[in-house]
Amino acid sequence: MTPRQRIVAGNWKMNTSYVEGRNLAKEIADRMQPTDTKVILAPPFIHLNNVGNIIRDLAGLYLGAQNCHWAESGAYTGEISARMLASIEVQYVIIGHSERREYFHETDEQLAAKVNAALAYNIQPIFCCGEKLDMRQAGQHEAIVEAQLRQGLFHLSGQDFKKVIIAYEPVWAIGTGVNATPQQAQDMHAFIRHIIAGQYGQAIADTTTILYGGSCNPSNARDLFRQPDVDGGLIGGASLKADDFLAVVNSF
Ligand code: 13P
Fold it and tell me: Any catalytic annotation for residue 155?
C-alpha cells in the first residue's frame, strides 16, 4: 500500500487569550519529539502570526487557520481572506467544520468557493465532513458524507484534489466525549477513500490523508490511528493542553 502522510492537527477553536495561546504553542514547540507525523497548529486568527514565528524553523510543525473567506479582498467586515493568510505563511486552513456549517450556515457552494480560494494561494484545505446523530441512526451517514465531498470538493482537478486533506468528524462525537469506535471510523474512512477512488482513481485515493476528529484524546488515539484508513486526527479539546496533544501526536 502507498504510504500516506500522517497528520495530527490541533483545532483550538475559539479558545485561549493571546498569552495563553503563545504559551501553549511554545510548550508544544519545546517539547515535541522528532516524528514523521506532520503536526499542524490551528489557533484563532489573533495568534497566527505569532505562532508562525514560534514554529517557523521547527521540523514537523505547521501553521493552520480555522477558516477563510472565499473572496480575495473587499467589503466583508470581520472576515479574513486566503490572501491574508498566505501573507503570514499559513500553510493549511480548516474548511467546512461542522460548527461553521451549523452556526454560521455555511453552504456547500460557499465551502467549494473557500476551497478554491485557499488553493489559489497555495494553502492546503483540511476539508471537514461528517453526519449528525439522526442521520447515522437513519442509516444516512454515508450518503450525507458523500454529498458533502461531492459538493465541496469534487469540482477540483485531480492535481488540485491531491492538495486536500479530509477530516471525517461525526457531529455526534465532537466535544461530547463519545468518540466514534475505531471500527466506525475505519468503515467511514474506507468508504470515503472508495468514493475518492471512483472520482479520481485509486492512486490518488491511496495517497489522500483522511483524519478522524471527534473526542479523540490520548486514551483512544492509539486504537483509532491503528486503523488502516485512519491517517491521523483533527483534535479539539485535547489540543488545548500540551501534554494531551503531544500524547495524541505520539499515538501512532
Ligand atoms: P473535540 O476533539 O473537542 O471533540 O473536537 C473535535 C473537532 O471538532 C476538531 O475540529
Answer: no
Could you identify the residue written with the cell 480555522? 66
Domains and CATH numbers, the chain: 7-249 (3.20.20.70)
* Residue in 99, 106, 131, 169 annotated catalytic: 169
Contact 40, 71 (CB under 8 A): no
Asked about 106 being catalytic, the answer comes back as no
Q: What pLDDT tens digit does each residue of the chain (252 aa) get?
A: 557 999 999 999 999 999 999 999 999 999 999 999 999 999 999 999 999 999 999 999 999 999 999 999 999 999 999 999 999 999 999 999 999 999 999 999 999 999 999 999 999 999 999 999 999 999 999 999 999 999 999 999 999 999 999 999 999 999 999 999 999 999 999 999 999 999 999 999 999 999 999 999 999 999 999 999 999 999 999 999 999 999 999 999
- Pocket probe for ligand 1: among 100, 216, 224, 249, the residue whose CB has the most ligand atoms within 8 Å is 216
Contacts of 69 (CB under 8 A, 6+ apart): 76, 79, 80, 81, 82, 114, 117
Q: How far is the CA of 75 from the centre of ligand 1 (A)?
A: 31
